[in-house]
Amino acid sequence: MQETGSISIHTENIFPIIKKFLYSDHEIFLRELVSNAVDATQKLKSLAQLGEFKGELGELKVRVTVDKEARKITISDRGLGMTAEEIKKYINQIAFSGATEFVEQYKDKDAATKDQIIGQFGLGFYSAFMVAEQVEIWSQSYKDDTLTAHWTCDGSTEFTLEEPTGEHAKAERGTDVVLHVAADSDEFLEEARLRTILTKYCKFLPVPIEFEGELINNTTPIWTRQPSELTDEDYTKFYQELYPFSEPPLFWIHLNVDYPFNLTGILYFPKVKNELQFQRNKIQLYSRQVFITDEVKDVVPEFLMLLHGVIDSPDIPLNVSRSFLQADAAVRKINTYITKKVADKLSSLFKQDRAGYEEKWNDIGLFVKYGMLSDEKFYEKAKDFVLLKNVSNKLFTLTEYTEHIQANQQDKDGNTVVLYTNDAEAQHSFVAAAQERGYDVLNFDQVLDPHFVGQLEQKLEKTSFKRVDADTLSKLIEKESTPESVLSEDDQKKLEETFKAAIANETMRVKVAALSPQDAPVVITQNEFMRRMKDMQRTGGGGGMQMFGAFPESYDVTINANHPVAQKVLAGNGTGESLAKQAFDLALLAQGMLKGEALTAFVKRSTELL
Fold first, then answer.
1. Binding positions for ATP (predicted)?
2. Is the pTM of this model over 0.85?
3. Cα(504)–Cα(369) distance, rounded to whole angstroms?
4. What is the b/e burial string over 155-188, where b = at least 16 CB atoms within 10 angstroms of the residue's CB?
5. Within-domain flag for 493
6. Residue 247 is labelled as binding a ligand
7. What's the structural domain count of the chain?
8. Which tops the pLDDT comparison, 567 or 157?
9. Is 583 in the same domain as 546?
10. Does 32 appear as a known binding residue?
11. How many angstroms separate the CA atoms of 267 and 282, rounded?
12. Where are the strands (E) in 187-227, listed by range?
């Protein structure tokens, strides 16, 4: 018997579109054809479990071979096979998915069947024509008294289908898909190229995949197993398998949920440096152990892109080529679930092993802060396990730190003032001065800290954050009693004019203030709001904060009327301006702002004053 016919499609133009544009990358053809072979194998195993197939299963594996001289790639399986009628139904009618019908037919008999079947679209087979000028199917059904089916198509809408007998019949159950590779696809005749594709997409398929006599996959990756079966060594070994040249992970989360969606996987916490390392190819998405993509931004919240690992879910909706995720309610639920699991893991680590958690803080602190800034629900959980580090390297929770400074660092209005530095070495003199007053100073020197400080200021009631060099200590934490100036108004005005003349810089706004004699003689500061906005803009604040980058730098120069230096400047008898310049340069030096010619002049002047 031989039959000739036309593939059932609605328009002659659809087939070239499927061939050329269905998939964004031509290498996908191998994933699709191997996945189909795995489906056929899984279906047969399901029928055997249900008692509907009573024959010998034998060795169930998928074989991929390449014959460069004959220009052929062959994908063979020993699954349930197809009859000629089934080929007409499943192959010739494009977009009728055999996998979908099979699941529907057996869904009430075996709930696990659906999770074992990869195909959902019925279009994957036609990806073969992206690289082949002709495709053959040789198939022998598992059903008794059926003939071999041989289907051939050259990429047009025409096909031939016959049932050869005798020596031309297929000898054993299963299907061989033979691709006659087109002239423009020579790369896929190279063994190394095919091995790379198989390793990328089929490394963890549930049925053994053999390529040129070598097994290329692990059929039971650890995310498919129960956590109770696994040791720490299993998890770290798998991490090295995924990322061969990476440092060992800090810890991990094993995801395993079957309601209201199916999701398994393992997320690893890597060591994160003091910068945002958005390597978005570190989390791999699988669907029933088939690699889909490493672009998971719709499934995983952006702040979790710092994690590594694997997510596997049959419930994540994909477009027809499986190349892109489609955001919908299921994806949002998965996104929320993963966020909760990560927060719960961190909370558990903090509560069960505070010392161990603190040891890891340098590596996970940036991640936690980014999560708090990105996700309100994560913030609500993380506020109990985020840690603040002071310049003495002691760590506190938000509650602990508030209690630690509340008595000493409240201003006259009852607000708690948190002092911090973003560069403890450069701002050492300011930090030391604060500590001499009994104040504590936090270290906020990570890239996200300008944003994090702003968030905490919004969230914490009656609490303000001030950089330790943003003003004099008397102004940073204003108390009820404020010192009075020992200078008359005329002397204060004269002192201001002397310093303005000595500084001669319009970006420096000079003012005289009555401060404690313990404060520095001259303090140079920048408006806290403007400086913070500029810091945030430099770290990607975006939006309206871009405008602050356009403002010229300007500083406040506060002259301490109650410091002995003020008296010396006023009594200078011709040297007052030189003393004022010296005191101003000392303030610049304290801020790391004295450089070049000005620094040379300062050194020379200092020598002359000795």
1. 32, 36, 77, 82, 97-98, 120-125, 175, 322
2. no
3. 43
4. bebebebbbeeeeeebeebbbbbbbbbbeebeeb
5. yes
6. no
7. 4
8. 567
9. yes
10. yes
11. 10
12. 209-211, 214-215
